[in-house]
Design goal:
Layout lengths: L5 H16 L14 E7 L2 E13 L2 E14 L2 E15 L2 E11 L2 E10 L2 E6 L2 E6 L3 E2 L12 E2 L10 E9 L8 E8 L3 E7 L4 E8 L2 E7 L1
Length: about 220
């Protein structure tokens, strides 16, 4: 159990309140060029990696996310997951994303583009117009905590709830990395951490009865 001082609880509430008051993208503006790379574990066993890499194309910034996961039993691969997404930002504004996913043989896709007063989203889950502030669930940008959220795999709109958690040492690490934990409900319950500089620092959720944990590389 974590015991906190009143000023720390107040600081966390103030931080979240300030985040929610910002327009989508502004809260994560300082994060846009920060490459991230994680080892992915299932019940403590390494199963692959998730990396986000950034590049400039003129005045636009591209974030490329790559996930490669495989669960093996002896010589056999019993589960495989791959995901590739390219996300474009102009300054602090989300512009578009396209992704392809292979979820153990199930092919998923989505694309979204800012148009007029909203974001046009289409994919495996159908087509809809999301609010102008909406963002994809790519997690590297902490602005996702404040924004309407849609799936970066199939485009579905999430009925999202966010609960601010404590400043704590990240699970599974060497004890040197601390971050703010937020619990996010997006169909499933996800814990996501952002470090003291606001960078994405960790992720945790359950899938197929296994605890999936992201550890920074």
């Amino acid at each position: 159990m974590t015991h906190e001082r009143p000023w720390l609880r107040l600081g966390r509430r103030a931080m979240l309140a300030g985040l929610l008051a910002l327009p989508a993208g502004a809260a994560g503006a300082a994060l846009l060029a920060t490459d991230r790379s994680f080892r992915v574990l299932a019940d403590g066993r390494p199963i692959g990696t998730h990396a986000v890499r950034f590049s400039r194309r003129g005045e636009a910034l591209e974030a490329s996310s790559t996930i490669r996961l495989a669960v093996t039993v002896g010589p056999l691969t019993v589960f495989r997951f791959t995901h590739q997404a390219v996300e474009t930002w102009q300054g602090q504004t989300f512009v578009r994303i396209e992704s392809q996913t292979n979820d153990d043989g199930t092919k998923l896709w989505m694309r979204a583009m800012r148009q007029g007063g909203g974001v046009t989203v289409e994919g495996s889950a159908g087509r809809h117009i999301a609010p102008a502030a909406a963002l994809p669930s790519t997690w590297w940008n902490r602005a996702v905590l404040a924004a309407p959220l849609f799936s970066a795999q199939d485009g579905q709109m999430y009925d999202k709830q966010v609960t601010a958690g404590p400043l704590e040492t990240l699970p599974g690490g060497d004890g040197s990395l601390r971050g703010w934990r937020h619990s996010v409900t997006v169909g499933t319950d996800v814990d996501v951490w952002y470090d003291l500089e606001g960078r994405w620092a960790g992720l945790r959720f359950h899938r197929n009865g296994k605890l999936i944990t992201y550890l920074p590389e």
